[in-house]
Amino acid sequence: MLKAGVFGAGHLGKIHLKLLQESSKYELIGFFDPNKEIASAIEKEFGYKSFSTRQELIDAVDMIDVVTPTINHFEVAKEVITSGKHLFVEKPITSTYKEAEELIALAKKHGVKGQVGHVERFNPAFRAVANKIEQPMFIEAHRLAEFNPRGTDVPVVLDLMIHDIDVILSVVKSKVKNIYASGVSVISETPDIANARIQFENGCVANLTASRISLKNMRKARFFQRDAYISVDFLERQCEVVKMKDVPEHPDDFAMILQNAEGVKKQIYFDNPKVEEHNAILDELETFADAINNNTTPIVSLEQGAEALRVANQVIESFKD
């Protein structure tokens, strides 16, 4: 079992602490939080050991799980890597792409593994259809959330949209060509609602909308490709796959058949895979343990986390155009 420690004991940090303690692949050693009052209360309520300094915890473990505010990611992640310990860091990887590049270089230099917490890659609904998404040419994603002051220290692009940016980059095997975006600040100092149109070199277009001032929560993505339509509801953990195939010589009486202007007929059928229910956060943490133990590349590498940040920053920059 890998010895694990957690930096940050806020809302998400407490979830990570609980899951690491329950995991069969980790031994939770303890946590560090600079707020001594919070640290003491958590230690008393849950029994997790609170360490007095970051370095003291780093020295006691094999892996550190960084669940601090984004502004602190680079500083603490650098300390973890240069101490020769493996790093799991919540998204976004850092505040700037330059910082992310430095972490990648340091990880290679010190021979440690790193993974970024883009949890939607581990969403059961997305995992059920990921292997069916092949060369999508149009993608539409909506990520809407009710207002919550937590997270408003960064633009909605880095708070919410970056989830969909990472998912899309994982299935579109092409470089970004152009980005057109707009954002509006309603209640925060940074944009609360944003829309981005991302064009890829292979012709794929992704239209993304993110809002943190909606009246209801929604996390959906739709992928359109040749002869197939795939939808993923990340919130409800449901998915749908609609495919088209050539009409057989003797179709079923209840077959759904479409005919285009040229007279070509296609049959519509559903190919919905079973969604295996599991905890996405626990899954991402345990697959990271597998990557460390088996010396393989983590599912969401530091490089991929950096690329999602780079594209997200391009979206933010295009607000100014």
Automatic annotation (TrEMBL):
Residues 3-118 form the Gfo/Idh/MocA-like oxidoreductase N-terminal domain. Residues 155-216 form the GFO/IDH/MocA-like oxidoreductase domain. InterPro entries: Gfo/Idh/MocA-like_OxRdtase_N, Gfo/Idh/MocA_Oxidoreductases, GFO_IDH_MocA-like_dom, NAD(P)-bd_dom_sf. Gene3D superfamilies: Dihydrodipicolinate Reductase, domain 2 (3.30.360.10), NAD(P)-binding Rossmann-like Domain (3.40.50.720). This is Gfo/Idh/MocA family oxidoreductase. The lineage of its organism: Bacteria, Pseudomonadati, Bacteroidota, Flavobacteriia, Flavobacteriales.
